[in-house]
Each structure stands twice: as C-alpha cells, then as structure tokens.
Amino acid sequence: MPAPARPARPVPTGDPRVHIQDLSVRYAADAPLVLDGVDLDLYAGQTVALLGSSGSGKSTLMKSLTGFAPITSGVVTVDGADVSALTGRQLRHLRSQVGQVFQQFNLIGRLSVLTNVLLGSLHHAGALNMLGTFRAADRRRAYELLERVGIADKALDEARSLSGGQQQRVAIARALMQRPRCVLADEPVASLDPRTSHVVLDLLQSIARDENIPVLVSLHVVPLALEHSDRVVGLRGGRIVVEGATSDLDAEALAPVYATDAEVGDDR
Ligand SMILES: Nc1ncnc2c1ncn2[C@@H]1O[C@H](COP(=O)(O)OP(=O)(O)OP(=O)(O)O)[C@@H](O)[C@H]1O
Ligand SMILES: [Mg+2]
C-alpha cells in the first residue's frame, strides 16, 4: 500500500516575515563564533524544523530574533524591523510580536490555565481595565484559544495540575494571545512522551497554516522534524549544513548535521 500523501507544502509567497542574512554571533570579543554566516528566511504559514546537536547554536539563533543574542555581523529582520537597530521600547514591541514556547512551558503553576493564557495579552498596552482585571474581550479570546488547543474544559484548573502535554498547549495558547507575527518554539517537546510530542507538533504546524504565521521549532528527534515541518534546517557548529523542503529530505540526508568533526574534516 502506498504511503499516505503528505499534505501539500505551503508555497512561500511575498516577502519573508523573518529574514536572516549572513548572521554571525559571538558572546564575547575573545569567544569563538557561535553562529557563523547563517542565512535563513521564514515565511508566513510555514513550519521550519531546526535540528542540530547540543551547542550547535539553535537557541542562539532563536534569541537573535528577539535581541537576546549579540548580533556580531549580518542582518536580522522581523516583520521588516532590523533587530540590531532596536532599543528600549522598540525592542519590547518586537518581543511582544514574537510568541515563544519553551521546553519547560514556563507557566505560573498556582494560577489558573485561563489566567496564564491571559498573561500573553500583557505584552500589549491596555490589556487591563481600570479595575486591574483583564478586559472581557481578552477573556473571550483566551477561552477561544483554549478551545483551539483543545483544553477549554481545563480553563479554571490550576496550571500545575495539568499534564506536560496539556501545559504545553496552554503555553501555545498564551503565545497566540500575543497575536504574534511569528512563533519560536525551542525544544517544545523535549519533556514530553512520543505520542504527546506528535500532538503538540501537529498543533504547532496547524497553527502556522491557520494563523498564517511562520513557526520555527527546534528539535532533537529527526523523525519528528521530518513528520511535522515544511522545511528543515540543520545546524552544525553554528553553520547551516543541510537545508531543504522536508518532502525532499530523509534521515540519511540529515546525517551531516550530526557528523563528528573528524568525519567532516573540520579542524576549527
Ligand atoms: N549567554 C551565553 N554566553 C556565552 N556563551 C553562550 C551563551 N549562550 C550560549 N552560549 C554558547 O553558545 C553555544 C551554542 O549554544 P546554544 O544554546 O545556542 O546551543 P543549542 O543548539 O541550543 O544547544 P542545546 O541543544 O543544548 O539546547 C554553546 O557553546 C554555548 O555554550
Ligand atoms: Mg538550546
């Protein structure tokens, strides 16, 4: 029986939402380059899986999009804004436009699921009304987002009472509450079991399509990247060594991402 066809890959149109050109990063003047000449464009609607061994620069690449990594040279633009030129209020605005999801969910455990999602709206001015409570429109949206991620029935539960997979769905809803222009998910399934990992990655990919935003997701499991992305980018020692449409790649094509220095003759 033939393998089921992959859903059609969204074809990028227009300008990239995120543009990274010849990006190099070093954390200190005398430290080695952590990213070395990285080029990457992220398009609305597309999910890009970022692979690489520990220390290859995945988190640093994500941090460079929100001004949390020092851009040593090159250009990073998010929604047209040049990240290295932003300061103060502009940088806070950029951060409000980028939804982030982390391995450890980063919820406030003793607060309700609904309140955790509402906290995403605090990125925008005027989220609280004069009584210091969340606006009714935001509460409605938070409920809708919890429905979108499939856990509206948990809205009033304490966040810490949820399973890891459920907590990650709350974190995704919180990120969407920001109405993000792009979502960064740094190892979002590293603490989850295999079945739950599929559910969460499926959700992220469908959000990219439905909300028409780019999603960049770092992963350590090659089959998950091949199943839940439209493009794969492989970092090795701060350089992109593999990049392509997911439908054109397999585990063998991605092997160079995990090659040792000796195997590739890299004596940096
Ligand atoms: N704030 C920092 N200051 C100095 N060096 C840093 C800093 N953050 C990261 N590094 C260094 O940059 C390199 C890349 O780290 P990074 O966290 O980006 O890797 P990663 O691919 O996300 O790894 P992992 O898979 O373990 O999360 C590492 O050598 C790390 O020690
Ligand atoms: Mg990391």
UniProtKB/TrEMBL annotation:
Gene3D superfamilies: P-loop containing nucleotide triphosphate hydrolases
Alphabetized UniProt keyword annotations: ATP-binding, Cell membrane, Membrane, Nucleotide-binding, Translocase, Transport
GO cellular component, one term: membrane
CDD domains given in the database record: ABC_PhnC_transporter (cd03256)
InterPro entries registered for this protein in UniProt: AAA+_ATPase, ABC_transporter-like_ATP-bd, ABC_transporter-like_CS, ABC_transpr_PhnC, MetN_ABC_transporter-like, P-loop_NTPase
Example GO molecular function: ABC-type phosphonate transporter activity
Keyword Membrane: yes
A family per Pfam: ABC_tran
Annotated transmembrane regions: none
Protein name: Phosphonate ABC transporter ATP-binding protein
Species for this entry: Dietzia lutea
